Amino acid sequence: MEFKPYMKSDYGKLADKVNLLPDFFTGFQPERREEIVSAEAKFYHSITEPYSVDDRVDKFYTGFTSYDGCEIKMKVYMPKNITGAVPGWVFAHGGGWMTCSVETHDFVPSYVAANAGIVCFSIEYRLAPEHKFPTGLEDCYAAIKHIAANAENYHVDTARISVGGDSSGGNYAAALALMARDRKEIRLDKQVLIYPATDLTGTVKKASAEVYAPVGASDDAPAVSFSEIYCTEPKEAFSPYVSMLLADDLRGLPSALFIQAECDSLCDDGLMYAQRLHDAGVPVECEIYKGMPHAFILRTYEETFAALDRICAYLR
Asked: 0.85 cut: is pTM over it?
């Protein structure tokens, strides 16, 4: 199978204004997760506070029962004074399948709920390596089923439930679209894939991976093997729900918006998957944000808000 990017990237240099510190991800230690994620959430809340939309959104935690009986937390973001049924967006946070939380990514669904006028849901799915594939993914799928079954309580139109996520969360969103198509229990309207990881097999040659350092790698920390973190055995990486770039059939999936960071080793993961969706007849929109690094959606650059506004327009 030949893989081509949906659009050309210049693979240019990182914008001078970009500050990648503090870095909560490189050299991450799962045994220190609570401490690290708490500090990370505090940092991202602090930098987004000047842009807060909390006066326009009601936010609250609720929960649901996952596929194996485990109770999972979910944060709901509901625009104030909502009337009637509106679109719903189910968001899976990134973090390499092993870190981050609803609170580290709180600003993204907050902003989208406030500015798109839709109800957003952020899932506190279980993390690897304690909970490997498909546990966290199935948690997110169970969340969608719960939302659809209780749509009236959440003021959500069941015909307009979409998914989204960043990085590993983008991987989840893409996988959820496939699962929904295959299982035929729920219908998804759209998918928003923010610099998604779409191939964990390491078998596809990607220019972006040759230009930029792997996510989570540094001079002091070797590249992370996400397939080892997320998968119990190597062959699982070839599942279409893990590496959807290699899936046999991508027909019948919901339309997709790709938000890509130019200076990101995963850039071609998204661009190649966008092309495969396009080839399968799936409507695709894609934008590459020049000079931006992986995880720029969590910062407060001009490009961050441009990307968030693009998502709002797409989902509105």
From this structure: yes
